[in-house]
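Table 4 source record.
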Amino acid sequence: MLLNSSGSTPVVSVIVPARNEEECLGRCLQSLVSQVGTDFEILVVDDHSTDRTGEIARSFAGAQVLQAGPLPEGWTGKSNALACGVTSARGEWFLFTDADTFHKPGSLARALTEARERKADLLSYSPEQEVVSLLERAVMPVIFGELAVTYRPAEVSDPDSAAAAANGQYVLVTRRAYEAAGGHAAVAGVILEDVALARRVKESGGRIVFRFGGEQVATRMYRTAAQLIEGWSKNLVFLFRSPLRLAAVRLLEFLSILLAIVLTVAMFIRGDIAIAAVCGVVAAVLLGRFLIRILRAHFRADATALAFFGLPFFSYLLCRSVISYRSGRLNWKGRSYSGAAVS
């Protein structure tokens, strides 16, 4: 079956929240309307966009375009938009996916099959991250490498573990589990609504499957340096337990590796081969530990090679995120979330 065009109940309701997404929405919707292998509907929720987002969404005959209602007190824009989409959704499964995602051919049917085979109430993929600019290639692997060791997929997918996580770019959840968890109303004011929803699904007895899903879905999160800085400044303070401590540790890691490399070269030039060898071993061990973490992020070789230079910028973003949160200046797409909830 293809895109649902009859009055029958679709298996999956794909819900795409979109606020000023004219740059990427067309690619996302084209990849969605081209899906095969299951019956589905597409609901695009235009979240008070001021660009061509609504026009682009309406140009796809297979997509139903909804208007997000006024933002209620205490709600984030994304949770409000997703809740709006749910009210019109008819499927037994909901796929919450961002407007900057690209869904690879057949991925929806494969995800549904995987969720059913693994008896998952919520299946979430961490997409392949497309990085283009030098800044993206340097810092994104560092961030996602850190996320991979903080939210370990094996632990999250273990029903006996309390660990819970999801990536809001791709969350496939049953209607039953979503409603049992309280839906987006239960996480209305939380910036990381994806992680909070996954936690509530697990606490209510649902089974979570969370893994890297680069073969299924891809995304380019930020297209400019300003977007990258604003976006991660909004999120990082909530993603890590002690962000300032982590910032200090990663900056120290960068300086230690750099110092070890410089001393290795300097001692070799001076002819102190024994000292140079010791410094070289230290540099190799530190770099090896760093690369093991970065490789968990599944980035291309060029980005992995540049990741070392992203360490100090990652520390900067962590500090900026903490300062923004404490000063009540968490901003995203023209909205301020001064009273954002942690979980």
